[in-house]
């Protein structure tokens, strides 16, 4: 597997969805270049995207939610008119000028740089508004295309409809189905971290891709009980995100203070992660190496989405994927859970 150079490629590409798309096993999650938790400058974000593309990463996932549109703008600018890449974005949150931004006594907006309530280090001069209606979907895609500087995206996900199941079923999914039938997009699906609801969408709509975050990892395998069997049955391709469960398995030696699903890990979770890390060391590998490869062992999973905020992070992720762990690792990890 080649991981550097202008003509590098990650092989083999895997079919993704039923619209003829193919993607490499490692994909670029663009939340990080939307300043998730930590600010990234434009040059660093551009270098991350271009380093990944040069190494053969051919699938880039973004959303209006990520940095209030910053991720889409940066991704579009960095890719330019590059062809041969698969782009996905998401619907469900419209962006509009902030109506309740704090004001000073003079009436001027308070500087809220870094104060975005969703964890992105951006100025909150626009706000997210939930909208899963047909009109909201069409407006969201139109705005995303403008930010991306493109005339189409390949995949659209219904984003985090946890509290909006009925609205998504009545509005978003029929709209996306229409766009796919018209050839405007190649595939559509849903992206969230609740495998039970994703399973309902797989069984009750005609989506052909899903993005499941944090529910099929070395620590949390719950999607194997419901979502992944349904996807195999319905010919739905899976992108696995959140494979580090927000951080606890990104280290070869998990320590107190590590996060699990965006909260401090409990002692029980930390103990489990440390047991898995010890098994990995016994097999001459590391916990993050296992975390990246574990989801790809399931036949429904076509790619792993990793957040990348710099060229160095891209190279580190590529190195993790360069060779699989030994086969003997997996039953020992299973026994250690």
CATH architecture: Alpha-Beta Barrel
Tally of extended strands? 14
The domain count comes to 1
| CATH C-level label | Alpha Beta
Task: Explain how this protein is built.
With 337 residues, the protein is α/β, with parallel strands linked by helices. The protein has a single domain, classed as NADP-dependent oxidoreductase domain (TIM Barrel, Alpha-Beta Barrel), CATH 3.20.20.100. The chain contains ten helices and 14 strands. The strands form four sheets. Strands 3-4-5-8-9-10-11-14 form an eight-stranded parallel barrel, surrounded by five helices. Strands 1-2 form a two-stranded antiparallel ribbon. A two-stranded antiparallel ribbon has the order 6-7. Helix 6 links the parallel strand 10 and strand 11. The chain starts with 13 loop residues before the first strand and ends with a helix. The N terminus is likely disordered.
Structural descriptors:
two-stranded antiparallel ribbon; 337 residues; 14 strands; disordered N terminus; eight-stranded parallel beta barrel; 18% strand; alpha/beta; TIM Barrel
